[in-house]
Amino acid sequence: MSAANDIQRSKSRRVFLVGVILRRHAGAAVAQGTVEEHLDELAQLAESAGSRVVGRAVQSRQAPDAATFIGKGKAAEIGAAATELGADLLLFDDDLSAGQVKALEDATGLGVLDRSGLILDIFGQRAQSREARTQVELARLNYLLPRLTRRWSHLSRQAGGVGMRGGEGEKQLEQDRRQLRVRIRRLEEDLARIERTRGVQRHGRRGAPVVALTGYTNAGKSTLFNRLTAADTLAENRLFATLDAKLRKGVLGANHGAAGNTAIFADTVGFIRKLPHHLVSSFRSTLGEITAADLVLHVVDRSHPQWHEQMQVADEVLEELGVERRRVVTVFNKCDRVGPAAGGTLRNGDNGCQNGDGVWVSALTGEGLEALKAEIASRLPGLAAAGAAEIGSDSGEADRPAVAIEDVEAAAPRAVAAARAALSQV
Predict the structure, then answer these.
(1) The sheet that has 52-61: what strands, in order across it?
(2) What is the distance between the alpha carbons of residues 267 and 247, in angstroms, rounded to a whole number?
(3) 246-251 and 158-159 strand pairing
(4) Is residue 210 a contact partner of residue 293, using CB atoms and an 8 Å limit?
(5) Which of 157, 212, 367, 425 falls 20 to 30 Å from 316 in CA-CA distance?
């Protein structure tokens, strides 16, 4: 079985979901509810990848089992239940080591895939541009590199001879790892060139205000982007419908602000809980659009039952990326689906599109859109003046790009770590 095929096996498969409750982190009732919510999202991810979910199981443990993650007995039990339902793939909500995947496959007779592998599968299906394809391939190889052990059928072979590195008797596994590392370095060089190009493009746009849309995946960013720019970006009710950062000019209105009535809007890839750190690192050039923007619209799906947790995930990432709170406008989207019974912070009667702690809109119907444009226009002149003051105080560096690539690269892994730490407390 090829490791390179592991992250492609979920497509058109019947999958059985597996989650683990760690009793040391929270009370049993709270942990059960949290794991079930995470499995609901995992089911959406599986469906986005083209799979059919046929069942699920939850195992409660004090700590993960080193060998099989869920314990050998529980693995056999879940394997039997999944086989009875016609499943051919076990999909785990947590990351697994190569040894755990091998042990689980031996114990259950089924294929095994973890959450990170599934997300990479989806990203691979959705990537369209050269940049996105390069980012996804880099993330995929970084995912595969530590999982090569005992995963390929040719690993027992020996390779050696005159002119070969490592000398006679070098294991095939070592060659495979070397080839992956070489490919990773080349992809990183390609991305570095893409990032430099992006830096030049950002520098060239400094005369026009840039507004980046970010937030949890499927919060309605692309639909709102289309409303603000009259673009035709793909907008579907599924996770990670689009990956490529898109930039379009949008009109704020003739009466909105004295500094001009247009801005450049950037639609970016969404966040998700337990997002693989190597994936975030690979997408650092896309994240750079968020960091370099004059204003960031944090789009929140206010109709989602876990909207607060999703909002927290994105807030943590934005904070670790160094995005100041003064540059962030919270946009509560899908307010047409929200009523007073939803437990929100509605202000006036039954209308879901009233200003609360942020700007309430419906990207689908257009409600609240004028208020959002007015808020954007009112915030941009002050932010532009503040940015000019900061540049002016930094003599000799006025021509420096707004964001250094290395700053974004260093911030991305910290962002994921902070988000995971915050979620562990939920």
Answers:
(1) 52-61, 14-22, 89-92, 111-114
(2) 6
(3) unpaired
(4) yes
(5) 367
Last residue of a domain, one of 122, 149, 170: 122
Neighbours of 385 (CB within 10 A): 11
Pull the structure tokens for residue 56: 């699920």
pLDDT given at position 345: 42
The whole domain housing 27 covers 3-122
User: Amino acid letter at 252?
Assistant: L
CATH number at residue 22: 3.40.50.11060
Entry pTM: 0.70
Residue 221 and residue 104 in one domain: no
d(CA 97, CA 114): 9
Does residue 308 belong to any structural domain of this protein? yes
> Residues in the chain with pLDDT < 50?
1-4, 6-10, 150-169, 256-259, 341-352, 354-356, 387-416, 418-426
C-alpha 58/C-alpha 191 separation (Å) is: 40
- Alpha helices by DSSP H, listed for 284-358, are 284-292, 307-320
Choosing from 98, 122, 146, the residue where a domain stops is 122
Chain position carrying tokens 């700007």: 359
Residues 6+ apart with CB under 8 A from 390: none
Q: With the CA atoms of 310, 315, 320 and 324 taken in that order, what torsion angle do they form, in degrees rounded to the nearest 10?
A: 160
The answer to whether 111 and 88 have CB atoms below 8 angstroms apart is: yes
Rounded CA separation 293/123 (Å) = 24
**Other residues' Cβ atoms within 10 Å of the Cβ of residue 135:** 27
- Whether 368 and 220 map to the same domain: the answer is yes
**What are the residues whose beta carbons fall under 8 Å from the beta carbon of 16, sequence distance 6 or more?**
53, 54, 55, 56, 57, 78, 81, 82, 85, 87, 89, 90, 91, 110
What pLDDT shows up at residue 265? 93
